Amino acid sequence: MSPSALVAVEFALVIVVVVGFGVWQLVSVRREIARDRERQREREAQAARGAAAEDSDRRDAAAAGPPPP
Fold first, then answer.
1. pLDDT value of position 64
2. Residue 40's Cα: distance from chain center in Å?
3. What is the C-alpha R_g of the chain?
4. In Å, how far are 26, 35, 36, 47 from 29, measured between CA atoms?
5. What totals of helices (H) and strands (E) does the chain contain, helices first?
């Protein structure tokens, strides 16, 4: 094999590795962003459920009237 062919093959291998790593990083970051968004949605839903439960407890206490003396 001629030296110029070896240089071309080596260059191609380096390009493949660099592009492959870049694609892998892109997929990995997008996956992590999706996980973070899902966790945030779960936290917000949990907070909303907690706030709704507190409001319900307050309404129940108000409907029951003041505690007996």
1. 64
2. 8
3. 30
4. 5, 10, 10, 27
5. 1, 0
